[in-house]
């Protein structure tokens, strides 16, 4: 078991770190303040392969492992949490199309999604089906060579500014087995977008409701087979949980870096903050918990890459632990800044706002506990 990065992974991390420092971090506060979606910067990221890290090479992706992708996303999130989080979503939908799409759909969108020329959104959550995703009500009814989509989705990242949608809709009976997945042109007739939500964080990406009114989707834009949608969604979420956990880790690492600098510069009672043992111990705990979270995330990514039977459980554990720890570390870093941490001249309050939602999306941390406990309590369960 080797915990060190190999040469390729070090090179990936260095490239991502340089991009974050040059293209993301200098603008993150402004994007947050003005709720600006930096499409041009996302396309620059696409030129480096960051829009299709684990999509196959057949569509122009890099074909990297989930572990490699996590290493890259961690560095990017140190520059801008919100923009990197959108990049992880785009990567997921690009991979879904490439892995499960029919040739016609892959030909239409695959290469352009891989480069970031076109941008994608993922449509699962509905007004009345959040954690209970299998109860979704959006329908897709077969009509000749098309399906007709009717329903609505909410909390959709990038909605209104993206070109491509992966939509989960019901083609069969109740429950998970009746759900199918579709590749949908975001500009199709019958699609309308709600107002841009005003959010606590993640302000560099728009979030809107999407309504589908008799939207005609070619039958060859079905992903997988009818009834495969929920399985595809869950496979996507395993990776998505690693991705969002990684964004928490990267942001928390940057918060620690900033807090360390502040402690070495700021003086109170005639001493630098770094000389107070109480603050030293607080920083030590922050670093220790962050390193533990990082190792769990990378372990889960390795399990997913290997196709381990318990990969979904490890992904749930990593997501639960890393997003809780990431938020806690950012909050503690803000506390080390004192009153300065609460004002927008410094990035601490943005780190706290951006990482808070990570404990909710990609499955709430309560749902993660449910996944883990079911595995542990199952008949004949073995140790993890």
Summary tags:
384 residues; alpha+beta; Butyryl-Coa Dehydrogenase, subunit A, domain 1; Butyryl-CoA Dehydrogenase, subunit A, domain 2; Butyryl-CoA Dehydrogenase, subunit A, domain 3; 3 domains; 4-stranded mixed beta sheet; 4-stranded antiparallel beta sheet; globular
How is this structure best described in words?
It is a single chain. The protein has three domains: about 5-115, Butyryl-Coa Dehydrogenase, subunit A, domain 1, CATH 1.10.540; about 120-225, Butyryl-CoA Dehydrogenase, subunit A, domain 2 (Beta Barrel), CATH 2.40.110; about 230-375, Up-down Bundle (Butyryl-CoA Dehydrogenase, subunit A, domain 3), CATH 1.20.140. It is built from ten helices and ten strands. It has about 375 residues and is α+β, with helices and mostly antiparallel strands. Strand 9 and strand 10 (about 270) form a beta hairpin. The protein has helices at about 5-35, 40-45, 65-75, 80-100, 105-115, 230-265, 275-305, 310-335, 350-355, 365-375; strands spanning about 120-125, 140-145, 145-155, 165-170, 180-185, 190-195, 205-220, 220-225, 265-270, 270. Helix content is about 50%, strand content about 15%. Strands 1-4-5-8 form a four-stranded mixed sheet. Strands 2-3-7-6 form a four-stranded antiparallel sheet, with no helix packed on it. It has a two-stranded antiparallel ribbon with strand order 9-10. It starts with 6 loop residues before the first helix and ends in a 7-residue tail after the last helix. The longest helix has about 35 residues, at about 230-265. The mean pLDDT is about 95.
């Amino acid at each position: 078991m080797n915990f060190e990065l190999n040469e390729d992974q070090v090179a990936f991390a260095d490239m991502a770190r340089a991009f974050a420092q040059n293209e993301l971090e200098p603008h993150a506060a402004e994007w947050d303040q003005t709720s600006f979606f930096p499409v041009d910067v996302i396309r620059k990221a696409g030129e480096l392969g960051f829009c299709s890290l684990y999509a196959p090479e057949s569509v122009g992706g890099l074909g990297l492992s989930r572990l490699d992708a996590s290493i890259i996303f961690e560095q990017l999130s140190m520059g801008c949490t919100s923009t990197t989080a959108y990049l992880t979503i785009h990567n997921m939908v690009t991979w879904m199309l490439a892995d499960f799409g029919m040739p016609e759909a892959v030909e239409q969108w695959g290469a352009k999604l891989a480069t970031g020329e076109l941008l994608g959104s993922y449509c699962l959550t509905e007004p009345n089906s959040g954690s209970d995703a299998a109860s979704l009500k959006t329908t897709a009814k077969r009509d000749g060579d098309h399906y007709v989509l009717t329903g609505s989705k909410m909390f959709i990242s990038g909605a209104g500014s993206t070109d491509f949608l992966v939509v989960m809709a019901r083609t069969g009976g109740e429950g998970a087995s009746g759900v199918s997945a579709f590749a949908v042109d975001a500009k199709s007739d019958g699609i309308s977008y709600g107002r841009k939500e005003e959010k606590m964080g993640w302000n560099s990406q728009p979030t809107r409701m999407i309504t589908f009114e008799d939207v005609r989707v070619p039958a060859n834009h079905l992903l997988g087979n009818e009834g495969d949608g929920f399985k595809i969604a869950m496979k996507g979420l395993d990776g998505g949980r690693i991705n969002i956990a990684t964004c928490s880790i990267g942001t928390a690492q940057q918060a620690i870096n900033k807090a360390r600098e502040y402690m070495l510069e700021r003086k109170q009672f005639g001493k630098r903050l770094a000389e107070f043992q109480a603050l030293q111990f607080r920083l030590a705990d922050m670093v220790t918990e962050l390193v533990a979270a990082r190792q769990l995330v990378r372990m889960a990514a390795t399990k997913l890459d290997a196709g381990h039977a318990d990969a979904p459980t490890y992904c749930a554990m990593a997501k639960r632990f890393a997003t809780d720890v990431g938020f806690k570390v950012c909050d503690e870093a803000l506390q080390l800044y004192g009153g300065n941490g609460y004002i927008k001249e410094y990035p601490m309050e943005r780190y706290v706002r951006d990482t808070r939602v990570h404990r909710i999306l990609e499955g709430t941390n309560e749902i993660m506990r449910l996944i883990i406990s079911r595995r542990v309590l199952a008949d004949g369960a073995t140790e993890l």
